[in-house]
Amino acid sequence: MSSFQQLFSSKRRPQVSCESCSLGRLCIPQGLSEQEVELVSRIVTINRTLGKGDYLYHSGEWFHRFLALKSGTVKLVTLDGAGNEYVVDFVMPGELLGFDGLSGERYTCSAIALETVSYCELPPHQLERLGREIPKLSQILLQLSGSQFQLGIQRVVLSRRQADERLAAFLAHLSERHRKRGFSPTEFRLSMTRQEIGNYLGLAPETVSRLMSQFEASGLILVQGKMVRILDMDGLLRFCSQ
Amino acid sequence: MSSFQQLFSSKRRPQVSCESCSLGRLCIPQGLSEQEVELVSRIVTINRTLGKGDYLYHSGEWFHRFLALKSGTVKLVTLDGAGNEYVVDFVMPGELLGFDGLSGERYTCSAIALETVSYCELPPHQLERLGREIPKLSQILLQLSGSQFQLGIQRVVLSRRQADERLAAFLAHLSERHRKRGFSPTEFRLSMTRQEIGNYLGLAPETVSRLMSQFEASGLILVQGKMVRILDMDGLLRFCSQ
DNA sequence: CGGCCGCTTGATGAGTGTCAAGCGCCGTGG
DNA sequence: CCACGGCGCTTGACACTCATCAAGCGGCCG
Questions:
Q1: A4-16 pLDDT, tens per residue?
Q2: All domains in chain A, ordered by first residue
Q3: Cross-chain Cβ contact A102/B128 below 8 Å
Q4: CA atom of B164 to C1′ atom of C25, Å
């Protein structure tokens, strides 16, 4: 992506403030007053754009910002000693990135755009400073960090399940997240490859592919490449709770 | 365990303050000045004791306190709809409990003592209030919460590995944690059953048992029931990094 | 239009769960 | 103090899920 644009726009004030952002419900502004949001809005450095495959930040880089995703999807990956990639999470608009840098001084994951993305930047030091004026802000941040831990617990539970249950839960979760953002919960595009889904779920890409076909044969979903339509949500959910 | 003792002692001021606690390095006091630790010490409600099998808190209960473990080991478990138990974490002295309640209003896990434990209680509201006076405190709390997320990432990576690598990493991690607490890193007692280890690692208890025998046959460790002696730490670590 | 990469589907095998049986330790009660 | 009972641990045999290898297809981008 054009790093020229980035350089220029980084000098400017944000074009879009938090007050007018439609993702407020999901992002930091949740539970803050208008005035408080205004204060937060001031430390949001910029509204950037990146293309598919670009890095929002690299593993090992200094932790110097939280990112609030505005549009697009991001994968959070970590590497082991042998250079194997592990997909830790998929991030959707309204969600924060950077929690993997919170415990140390450096990010332990890389954040990579799966499609064109736009996002805002929040300097942790300023957030911290602002947190003294707005106690609620510190609380929200801690709460969001706790949600990350919660996601980890969900994954532990999921990782003990059969392959088909894992994929069903994954699709149901994606559907729910689309719904929360005002998109169709029954028809959406998978911005990640089968390989990435498999990596995330601890399955081989072939297994993901097979299961999708199987779900389609069972009349649960309809698949056309990256597009997925959920035909029988109850049937899908029955997989998860069982 | 005697709930009488609890009722009585809960009315008292703590006998042991944070200033004199040997676990300060690991617990909240890390990085705080003496005065600040003194302030924290004042909101630490109590120094309690529980026996094996007792619950420190229950899943579904209101999140009303953090716990700082002083001695003993605790398992953090969550349940799925079918009532299956999933071991989320093992907690050792100096570590905080309660992060699973941070994102909502209720705990999502139960904390169960694996042996006699003692611990302190920290009311989140008071911590939050104190955080306004001591910015560093909010920071530490957020950092500790971030470490929980970090542990989740480690588990993701580990869960993709072979059974023997998982167990080797588990033993090495336990060893390291013992070392940090001033105990022998080469000889220690497993306070959890093979079943619980297996549950934690995503393995059947039989597999854990078999692998321990295998490690012993390879001269890596020496097993006598719950006692483990590590004979070849390098050999064990070679499993993990590979 | 061509090439590449991602997706699909099939065949095979390895790793690990499951079932089963026996052992031994520990706590309990006579 | 010893006998009993139970539970956790060990070890073996077998089955099954899912990874791996392989080949062919198809869509997207250059």
A1: 444 444 444 445 5
A2: 3-157 (2.60.120.10), 161-241 (1.10.10.10)
A3: no
A4: 27
